[in-house]
Amino acid sequence: MTSRRSALARLGAVAGTLGLSGCARVLGSASDGVDTGLPPNPHADSLPARQYVQGPYLPTDAAGNDLQPRYRRVLLLRLDVDPSVEAARTVERAMRTVEAAFDWRGDGLFHLLAWGTDYFERIGELGRAPISKPRVVSRTDDPALLSFDAVLVLESDVPSHLSAVENAMFGAATTLQGQPVDHPLGDVLSVAERRTGFLGEGLPAKHADVEGIPAGALSADDPTFMGFFSDRQGTQASEDRVAIDGGRFDGGTTLHVAHLTQDLDTWWEGLDDAGRVARMFSPEFDPAEIADFGANVPFTDAVREHAREFDVVGHHEKVAQVRREGEPLLLRRDFNTTDGGHAGVHFLSLQRTLDHFRRTRRAMNGWYVRDDSEAITDRENNGILNFVDVQSRANFYVPPRDERAFPLL
Ligand code: HEM
User: Fold this and answer.
1) For residue 260, which atom of ligand 1 is closest to its CA?
2) Measured from the CB, is residue 237 less than 6 Å from ligand 1?
3) What does 305-358 look like in DSSP terms, one character per residue?
4) What is the pLDDT of residue 13?
5) In whole angstroms, how far apart are CA 378 and each of 137, 139, 245, 345?
6) Going by fewer Cβ within 10 Å, which terminus of the chain is more open, N or C?
């Protein structure tokens, strides 16, 4: 029987003979991406080589924190054709069309195309891929463990840009920003599921008429449904920190996508400011101190002592325990959602390895404090765990821009 791999290798040889292979890259090569035979990306010089890099292009607040784009769309994709050089060419052309249409900035568009566990399984390479299928990592949840071929993440301060791209790539539109779309992603991929959401002052209050949020709970300037800003610079891994460093996947990273629903009646009506601050950050803080945090959140690394003294521990102090040399392991790109008519968070995080995500999640579970306080259970008085339920998880590999079409093929 001919293996898929050798069949693809033959296809590569044919592509080469037909003059499609303009450089030394060989289909199936262990050291590089698939050769699409296309000329070099004309936008490459004005775009970061790593698809997920946004930092240098984002505005900052007065404290120096990056202000992430306010609107998000996550298109979870299914491959409709067999992986091939031709399909890779279509994908690369489609992504170049998107790049030509918008500047790489908040009021333009950030996008990344990542590849999921279904894709790597399909090409027989899941064992070699830098990702694995998602697992259950908490005792409080029974999430759907999802697997997709790919995901397209779109982020912008201009909500219509997200719709324009989705329509041009997967819908009826034949142009994008006035330019023809000759090779839409929809020729090879289709949308299996979509997630939408938003982040930033004003937006949660505008979308608060959903299950999970008591009426009138949010004030106009709350940046998230739980009321706190959540992306201070010092609480984020740097874009370098999450990059895979060296080897076949150099410059790529891993992406975890989880959907959490939130039930915030007790959060807003059963707790006061001190109760919310204790659970989100740490019981050692006075609520008035939060506004002074600036570009970092202080923590004393005393979770077990706090459990004994206060019978409650904070989300931030728990997850901050896994920092390495003072730096968190995760670069969080999570946002609020009302998908399904219920308040929630799409928790997207980038990390060098998925183990960094699991390690951080174990720290968040807080099982280690149960001996220190009977009041702390898997959910109660244990950070924000009493207010969130994980509905689903999925994992992806984010290749560098020049290898974004069919990695490992
Ligand atoms: C509804 C869900 C969640 C909310 C509302 C939330 C909120 C927050 C907030 C407000 C902070 C403080 C950051 C700051 O002030 O800049 C924080 C930090 C953090 N969260 Fe979450 N979070 C959620 C879920 C998660 C999950 C699922 C994880 C991963 C397992 C996670 C990992 C982290 C990490 C790593 C930090 C930074 C820790 C550090 O500074 O070292 N969070 N979160």
Assistant:
1) 1
2) no
3) HHHHHHS-B-HHHHHGGG-BTTB-S-EE--EEE-GGGB-EEEEEEEESSHHHHH
4) 35
5) 13, 7, 36, 20
6) N
pLDDT of residue 32: 62
Q: Which atom of ligand 1 is nearest to the CA of 226?
A: 5
Protein residue with least CA distance to atom 11, ligand 1: 230
Q: What is the pLDDT of residue 33?
A: 78
Radius of gyration, alpha carbons of the chain: 22
Contact 148, 192 (CB under 8 A): yes
Determine the residue type at 31: S
365 lines ligand 1 (CB under 6 A): no
Q: How far is the CA of 208 from the centre of ligand 1 (A)?
A: 21
Residue 130's φ and ψ, nearest 5 degrees, are -80, 15
Ligand 1 atom, smallest distance to 258 CA: 27
Q: Which residue has the tokens 């299950």?
A: 211
Tell whether ligand 1 has an atom less than 6 A from the beta carbon of residue 79: no
Distance (angstroms) between ligand 1 centre and the Cα of 280 equals: 8
**What are the Cα distances from residue 14, in Å, to 28, 36, 136?**
13, 13, 44
Token pair for 191? 């949308």
- Where does residue 65 fall: left (phi above 0), alpha (psi -120 to 50 degrees), or beta otherwise? beta
Nearest-CA residue for ligand 1 atom 38 is 320
Distance between Cα 348 and ligand 1 center (Å):
11
Q: Among residues 191, 196, 194, 228, which one has the least CA distance to residue 210?
A: 196
Q: From the CB of 328, is ligand 1 less than 6 Å away?
A: yes
Q: Is-contact 384 313, C-beta < 8 A?
A: no
What residue's CA is closest to ligand 1, atom 19? 316
- Beta strands 110-116 and 150-156, pairing class: antiparallel
Cβ–ligand 1 contact at 347 (below 6 Å): yes
Q: Is the CB of 161 under 6 A from ligand 1?
A: no
Mean pLDDT, consecutive 10-residue segments, the chain of 409 residues? 36 34 35 84 96 97 95 98 98 98 98 98 98 96 98 98 98 97 98 97 95 96 95 97 97 98 98 98 97 93 97 98 97 98 98 98 95 97 98 98 97
Model-level pTM?
0.93
